[in-house]
Amino acid sequence: MKRQIPLILIMTLCFLFVFHAFIPHKYSQDFYQWWLSWVRAMTPFAVVLGVMSLSMIHWTKISRRLPNWQYSAVTLIALAFTTLAGFLWGTQPGTPYMWIFTNMQMPMASTMFSLLAFYIASAAYKAFRARSLEATVLLLAAIIVMLAQVPIGMAISRWIPQISDWILNVPNMAAKRGIALGVGLGMTATSLKIMLGIERTYLGSGD
Amino acid sequence: MNFFERIQALDRRWIYLLVALAITVPLVLVFDSKTYTTEPTENIYQLIDSFSGRDDRAIMINFMHDASTMPELFPMEVAILRHAFLRDVKVFTICFTPTAAPLVDYAINTVKEEFPDIQSGVDYINIGYKPAALYLPIVLGMGDDIAEAVETDAEGRQIANLPMMENIQNYNEMNLVIETSGSSFGAMWYIYARPRFGVNVAAGITAVMAADAYPFLQTGQLIGILAGLKGAAEYEKMVDLFAAQDRPFSRERAREEHVSITDDAVLYKFRVARIGMNAQTVAHILIIVFIIIGNVGYFFEKQREKKV
User: Fold this and answer.
1) Complex ipTM value
2) Are residues B175 and B118 in the same domain?
């Protein structure tokens, strides 16, 4: 029963949504509206579930003094403090919540993302080698596209942005489209397998 | 150890130091550089410009990112909002991730400081954060009735009662959605809303994701893209060149005329992307130099190994 009920629910809803997409009948529209009210009602529970899960995982790490438990303590304190700041003083400019966002969240998140520049530079120096013909073509394409992305590319030659556009619009697009088609077909096949009950791994193991 | 062996084995901390200098020095010592506009950016500018002064037209900016991608995406959002406020174009803002909600407020307030007459509910509506579970229902629901699909704005007011909604009902009026994102570039809108309701979709994306968006630009599913900091810089330039000077848009002038970025007459926050492009220029050149030096070292090493 633990597997059969979710399976029946998922299969039924999958077919109902397919019908809704292709048959714009009143019953189909009513079903969609009914589903929307369920989504609205369920979303807050998902937030509660997320906070509970996060708290339990980190609290276990702290109570058992597992390696790096101090980070878990920081996470929980930040969670509690930010939530309280939002609830007590609101989220408008000038409030503690907005102060936390602009002075802590923004610089920390941007710093993490900016590390990419350092890794790319290091990888370009250490690993980007013209070891084969394919690697050489890739290397030249990368240099042209990088130059075209900055004003100096146009200043060197107006051909650089044009070649870069060609690289992006022809070989890049052909490859991306091929990948997108492959992903699309894969998604369709997986969806069909789920709808027909062939694919069941998402239900987890056990009875 | 000879010279080529030495450069092959260079400690990566030297590389990190050079990258840090290449990025920070041009941000501190600002020099003038040209910004060349491109068609995908011009298309977005032109469409927004065509909504000027009309109360039966609006655009929507969907903030689909958190603070990590702010350096690239925030200048785009500021430039688009500035353009809209200068040209009296109605704006909706929305986000589906909680971490984007403060960003929306921050972007609006950054621009609004220079426009004291702009009013919430009259010139713009910040719908604010809506749970991601409601993303698809909202995208589809807006095709019938925006006010019904989202119900309330970020301040909890009924959207249907706000003055801006008098002549705006659905995608027929709110005819452009711009998604600023580090990854998704408007997929929900061009898959579901564009074919069904004909809404125009554009994307503001990080430079690393730009290559992924080109197929959708070519098919017309996206009417334009702002690709990374470069896209933001191009948009900033066009706002300075046309909207800020109350001149009509022209692609030729956008491409030919130059706007100085060392001129303090334009506030720093409205030229931050173009200043950032200076840092990006130096960083790109440095990476290209790294690639060349690394390959020269590799080539000579290989030659030496062959001889041995």
Assistant:
1) 0.83
2) yes
Q: Could B281 and A151 be called an inter-chain contact, meaning their C-beta atoms sit closer than 8 Å?
A: yes
Q: How far is B160 from chain A (nearest CA, A)?
A: 19
Q: Listing from the earlier edge strand, what are the strands of the sheet with B224-227?
A: B124-129, B90-95, B58-64, B174-181, B200-205, B224-227
pLDDT tens track for A18-61? 888 888 788 988 888 888 888 878 888 888 999 999 999 999 99
Asked whether residue B295 is domain-assigned, the answer is yes
What percentage of residues in chain B have a pLDDT greater than 70? 100
Instruction: Tell me whether residue B231 is in a domain.
Output: yes
Q: Are B10 and B130 within one domain?
A: no
Domain containing B150 equals 39-260
Q: Do A150 and B69 touch (CB under 8 A)?
A: no
Read off the CATH number of the domain in which B99 is found: 3.40.50
Between A and B, how many residue pairs show a Cβ–Cβ distance under 8 A?
A: 142
pLDDT in tens, B288-305: 998 998 898 888 888 888
Q: Do A105 and B67 touch (CB under 8 A)?
A: yes
Choose the closest CB to B69 out of A42, A113, A126. Answer: A113
Q: Provide the shortest C-alpha distance from residue A64 to chain B (in Å).
A: 31
Residue A63 structure tokens = 């109570």
| Minimum-distance CB partner of B34 among A93, A151, A176 | A151
Structurally, chain B folds into a number of domains equal to 2
Nearest residue, CB atoms, A176 vs list B211, B277, B294 = B211
Question: What does the CA dihedral B141, B143, B146, B148 come to, rounded to 10 degrees?
Answer: -40
Distance CA A172, CA B187 (A): 19
Global pTM value: 0.88
- The predicted-structure confidence for A181-192, as pLDDT tens digits, reads as follows 999 999 999 999
CA distances (Å), B94 to each of A156, B65, B117, B130, B148, in order? 41, 11, 22, 8, 15
| One domain for residues B8 and B56 | no
